[in-house]
Design a protein that fits this description.
single chain, alpha/beta, 297 residues, Spore Coat Polysaccharide Biosynthesis Protein SpsA, Chain A, 46% helix, 7-stranded mixed sheet
Length: 297
């Protein structure tokens, strides 16, 4: 069996990766890649059957793996990497789509150039959203969907595990930290850890992030990801202290009873009549309040 140049790895949990797989199947250089997807213990037989039906209609070689129990994002990515065969791997999220025909070709060109060890291609979000996901679109557009120049200037700060292409030897030496559980910060910690030792390049090769979350999901994730943020700051204090979030969290931690404002912040976040920029600000303060509490534990 011919060894692929690139292994595309897609962890998923209750998300159907069908749209992503079909968009990858149309790529002109798909013969140079293998695709491995892993269901992180969802136990959803209907979803599994739907994914198998999608794979059966593709020309792209796809392996569908299923974990017996939910292990989290870091452990699932590590498990996929261990089963892949190429010297380079590309992590994509299941709720993404590839819109340009040379998406794979751009990565293969950079691999051939051999001038970096880690590449982040960036991502975009679709402009039109319904009421339930408009807040996440606005947050992502302002905070994550940045130009190549802005991302490169910040180095590891704007690296995410979605659309992340990595040399296998880097992951063999520095895997994702499975000490992170639930949502958030495991990719930021990994990027901070590898930045001093390996060549990181931001490139313009975005995928479209389709799976924007509802307002209620954002509120829940930001309220429960404090322990992950604390772990990140403990492992990488120098980077954490340079981020605006850290300064807000630090200031809030000195304000007695700041948690009493959370019902008001939650109300503003939920209020569709409030201007979106103010809802985004309220969401950031909601997150900072929970993180400030986690930092004291």
């Amino acid at each position: 069996m011919t060894r692929p140049t690139l292994s595309i790895l897609v962890p998923f949990y209750r998300d159907d990766p069908g749209v992503l797989l079909r968009s990858l199947d149309s790529q002109t250089h798909a013969s140079d890649v293998e695709v491995l997807i892993m269901d992180d213990g969802s136990g959803d037989e209907a979803l599994s059957a739907a994914v198998d039906a999608t794979i059966a209609a593709l020309s792209l070689p796809v392996q569908h793996l299923r974990a017996p129990a939910n292990r989290g994002r870091s452990a699932t990515r590590n498990a996929l990497q261990e089963r892949s065969r190429a010297d380079w791997v590309l992590f994509l999220d299941a709720d993404m789509r590839v819109d340009h025909d040379d998406f794979i070709a751009r990565y293969l060109e950079r691999i051939e150039a051999d001038d970096c060890d880690v590449m982040f291609g960036g991502f975009t979000v679709e402009a039109a959203q319904d009421d339930t996901t408009e807040l996440h679109r606005a947050l992502s557009d302002a905070s994550d969907c940045l130009s190549v120049e802005e991302r490169q200037a910040a180095g590891p700060q704007y690296v995410a595990s979605s659309n992340l292409c990595v040399r296998r030897s880097v992951l063999d030496a520095e895997g994702f930290d499975s000490g992170f559980s639930g949502w958030g910060w495991e990719d930021s910690e990994w990027a901070a850890r590898i930045d001093a030792r390996y060549r990181l390049r931001h490139i313009g090769n975005p995928a479209v992030h389709l799976g924007l979350e509802s307002t209620e999901t954002l509120l829940s994730r930001f309220a429960t990801s404090g322990p992950n943020y604390r772990r990140f700051t403990q492992l990488h204090p120098n980077l954490a202290e340079r981020l605006p979030l850290y300064r807000i969290v630090t200031k809030l931690s000195r304000v007695p009873g700041h948690s009493a404002a959370r019902p008001v912040l939650r109300g503003l976040v939920r209020a569709k009549a409030v201007p979106t920029r103010l809802r985004v600000l309220a969401l950031k303060l909601w997150r900072a309040s929970h993180y400030a509490e986690a930092m004291r534990q």
